[in-house]
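Case 180 in the screening queue. Each case pairs one protein sequence with one candidate compound; here the compound is inosinic acid. For every case the pipeline is the same: read the inputs, emit a complex structure as tokens, and attach any notable structural observations.

Predict complex for case 180.
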Amino acid sequence: MANITLFNKTFEPYLPESLIQEKIKELGEIISEEYEGKRPLFIGVLNGSFMFAADLFKQISIEAEICFIKLASYKGTKSTGNVITAIGLDTDIRDRHLILLEDIIDTGKTMNEFIPQLYHQQPASIKMAVLLHKPDATIYPVQIDYCCFSIPDRFVLGYGLDYDGFGRNLKEIYQLKETE
Ligand code: IMP
Ligand code: MG
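Case 180 output:
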């Protein structure tokens, strides 16, 4: 694997395709076992999670559904602060077992704000599956139930994750070069 240059920044190979796929296969097997008979609803958070969601869902061997949402943040009132809303959540989630799929938990802000809102619609349970977690960067409490890779606090690119919109198509994950 060679370095990638994007907007004058250099990214080095970090997680190879085979390792990513291996971890996802393991996770698919664990979830399939734990959710047997529960007909879980996977919710992929766009855009970043589309590759992870697709590859993980292929490894699910039980009856399950999947849908995708996009999160939008807008300024609420003084008391509500910023409000995050889900665009495209048209499935009834009441009494459903939800598994949220995210590309990466960085500060944790997005999921920390969004998950409590999902509970208002009274699902049976909510669990969170992430491809990547940067524990050193996470300052908002988020419960991560399944995680493929814990990584250092350095910017990553590829396999759905972008830098200014580009790089999502890479099959591997790259890391910003230390000196940049
Ligand atoms: P959080 O709310 O700080 O946890 O941010 C989560 C979102 O920020 C992710 O869903 C990504 O879209 C984006 N993000 C955080 N870190 C990275 C990174 O290293 N590369 C690409 N996107 C990132
Ligand atoms: Mg994202």
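Case 180 observations:
- Residues 77 and 146 are 34 Å apart (CA to CA).
- The mean pLDDT is 94.
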